[in-house]
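Bug report (template v2)

What were you trying to do?
Predict the complex of my protein with (2R)-2,3-dihydroxypropanoic acid.

What happened?
Run completed; filing so the output is reviewed.

Input:
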Amino acid sequence: MTNKPKVFVTRIIPEEGLSLVREACDMELWEHELPPPREVLLEKIKDKVGVLSLLTDKIDAELMDANPQIRVVSNFAVGFDNIDIKAATARGLPIGNTPGVLTDTTADIAFTLLMATARRISESIDYVRAAKWKTWGPMLLMGQDIHKATLGIIGFGRIGQGMAKRASGFDMKVLYHDVYRRQDLEQSMGVTYADIDTILAEADFVSIHTDLNPSTRYMFNAAAFAKMKRTAILINSARGPIVDHMALYEALKSGQILGAGLDVTDPEPIPVDHPLVSLPNCLIVPHIASASVATRGKMASMAANNLIAGVRGERLPTPVNPNVYDGEIRK
Ligand code: DGY
């Protein structure tokens, strides 16, 4: 028997976080590769006071009401579109996330996708592996220049700004759009604010760094692709549903745009028989933007600290819904 607060951790996360949770809580850990099925999650949380969730777990009003003793949900991600934040706040339930620690690692992969797609790296690897490389070819696998090209950044938060920093090393011209104009950063970062249509018309690369919300869902649709250059490349390391994937397929197939590099898809995982997967000009990786050893370790300890604070009734170090503390929180 233990008097430690009972918590459910919905997948194995790095030891930096698990050791903290184990020390402070009576932890039940879901040790499988796949997320707990919905009915299992609902069952598992019945005798718990805290949940450490992943972006693959749907945390909605039904789940929050399934056990009113749950005092905290700590998400192992900076994004929280898997959680109904309004419902949580209305119930006095603090939600935690992991902002800041994954900014550079995510910007690194967005820029990696940009470079790999522009220079056709995945096609080139396939070419060598298929023993098609017979000689040096003057017309072989020609791609797009990155240096001095125009990069359009949609969403100029921490990760969007990280992308701009990387682009400056390649002498790129950077246009950005965000609901909040960042005039304070424009001169120092050498970036220019533009409306979305200007970015679509002028950018050689468009990189998405906004969150998924009703106004960004399917923001990249057939109408948007029609406004882009035929040589443009789309990069998405934010959330899959910001892009209409069938419209993207049509745009890539018809030559409306040149290429796409995706870390996120809709749905996830993207079925292997999805038409996008077969396109040579669409590079897809399995939502690994924050997947460096160091960053996942930091995310784990941050998520653990949110969980532990929450079960103790303390303010979370990084709450998504700080306004929950304006009212009464769940005890
Ligand atoms: C997040 O944190 O939101 C990423 O998508 C996964 O690290």
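What did the reviewer find?
The chain has a mean pLDDT of 98. Residues 55, 77-79, 102, 290 surround (2R)-2,3-dihydroxypropanoic acid (CB under 6 Å).
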